[in-house]
Design goal:
The protein is α+β, with helices and mostly antiparallel strands. The protein has helices at 16-19, 24-45, 69-74, 77-85, 94-97, and strands at 4-9, 55-63, 101-106, 113-120. It has five helices and four strands.
Amino acid sequence: MAYRLEFRINVLPSSTNSIGRKHWTIKAKEAREWKTWVALMAKSKGLPKMPLKKAKLTLTRASSVAPDADGLVSSFKHVIDGLVYAKVLENDRMDNIGIPDYRWEKAPQKNGWISVVVEEVG
């Protein structure tokens, strides 16, 4: 049976536009926090026996305002890094994950969330 991981985090990662000019220590702290949150969620749902060599990712951001395309993609950088850190993914290169399916949904203001779906590709 192929590995599948699905979870939701009821917080939004910062977009490039909102964090772009902040001090590097603030950026580094956010990166660490997201890697840790994602790793904890993945571990709580069950890790694969070995990191996946090939996977399909579906990443959804729900917010009150629609992001621009590059902001949507960049907001998931630390999330994907967290999947590698947790050893769900062997790597986050194109050879391993291709181009993830990035989605956006409308959410009430201050009730944003992200969802992550990882599916092993044979």
